[in-house]
Amino acid sequence: MSGSSMNELDQAAIAAAARALEAGALVAFPTETVYGLGADAESPAAVARIYEAKGRPNDHPVIVHLAPGADLSYWASAIPAEAHALVAAFWPGPLTLILKRASHIPDAVSGGQDTVGLRCPSHPVAVALLSAFKGGKGGVAAPSANKFGNVSPTTAQHVRDEFDGEVSSGPGPGNGNGNAPGNGARIAAVLDGGSSQVGIESTILDLSRLATHGPVLLRPGHISAKQIADVIGQMPGLPDQSAPRASGTLESHYAPKAPVALIAGAAVVETLAALQARQRRVAVIHYSAIALGGAQATLPGDPVGYAYGLYAALRAMDQTGADLILVEAPPQGEAWLGVNDRLRRAAFGSAGTIDKFLQA
Ligand code: TXA
Ligand code: MG
């Protein structure tokens, strides 16, 4: 398919980004969930640059992104039939599988554990990049393209905001020796693929201890436990204490700079008025029809639309300079699990803020 000049530009940018990755540099790219900050998963030095750029502890494992049709057995060992069934059902798509790792997976990728997280994203730019990188046979280690603990980016501009001054302005794919690209930038390129369609990170399912622990849902996401059960005939359980720690499962995560408080819809108007009476600047994220004054973001009342807009709304409300982001608590229920999980973590570090402000 020969495209417009726009498509040819995209192709050139994608090819340059693939060469940069091959040279050991970092490239930020869109996926259907959130933007990732990628490096060659088989180069410990390249993966180390991700940790440096994010300010992330280096014992946290990173997901390896694969091109469609990649050979699972190159990356994982002791692969259960359930993994193949889930790959057939959901890849490319927002599902990460934790499997026993193949022996050549660097410790920098696995966080020193005996497992590896694998995912095949569906975003066309991600697919094109992964297919161009090492001829489609490589793996790109990529956490979300944000500083550690911050809200994940769902647009290229979010990535540039997170890594202000750290993104290369020149086109160069790096200097070929695996060092950072020119002008001291940490990130060789940010590929722009528009807004991520799903908006929250992939569902993570641990199949590495299937025989003894069953399938374990480490992080809820767009692909639900029920959808997984429909494929493998077994409902995933929740992690126990001995399960490997995933940074996205730390209690406090995905947090904007302002404190976040979750509050029932019926209490939003009254709480807002009480806080404003104490001169607090409050930004509100809501989904039901509430008449409010001041900074606010209105999200759709369905879980798919809400997830799509959530991170952009958190960023936008943070940028108003509010002292507090008040979030109308979404409904409970399985379809809302991913959204409620991210909101709970965003609010975790700010428990008690409303009371503190009202008593001040
Ligand atoms: O949607 C996504 O998964 C995005 C896009 C870029 O693909 N990536 C993402 O990466 O959210 P990150 O690093 O922000 O979160 C990945 C989570 C972390 O909580 C990490 O600890 C966990 O996956 N993880 C990766 N490998 C693992 C492993 N071998 N065992 C347990 N958890 C693992
Ligand atoms: Mg993350």
TrEMBL record:
Entry keywords, A to Z: ATP-binding, Cytoplasm, Nucleotide-binding, Nucleotidyltransferase, Transferase, tRNA processing
Biased composition (Gly residues): 171-181
Region ranges (Disordered): 163-183
Coiled-coil residues: none
Domain YrdC-like: 11-223
InterPro entries: DHBP_synth_RibB-like_a/b_dom, Sua5-like_dom, Sua5/YwlC_C, Sua5_C, T(6)A37_SUA5, TC-AMP_synthase_SUA5
GO molecular function: ATP binding; double-stranded RNA binding; L-threonylcarbamoyladenylate synthase; tRNA binding
Single Gene Ontology BP annotation: tRNA processing
Nucleotidyltransferase recorded as keyword: yes
UniProt binding sites for L-threonine: T33, H65, R119, A142, S202
Catalytic activity: L-threonine + hydrogencarbonate + ATP = L-threonylcarbamoyladenylate + diphosphate + H2O
Binding site for ATP: R56, T115, S144, S152, R219, Y254
Protein family per UniProt: Belongs to the SUA5 family.
Record's function text: Required for the formation of a threonylcarbamoyl group on adenosine at position 37 (t(6)A37) in tRNAs that read codons beginning with adenine.
Protein name: Threonylcarbamoyl-AMP synthase
Organism the protein comes from: Pseudoduganella violacea
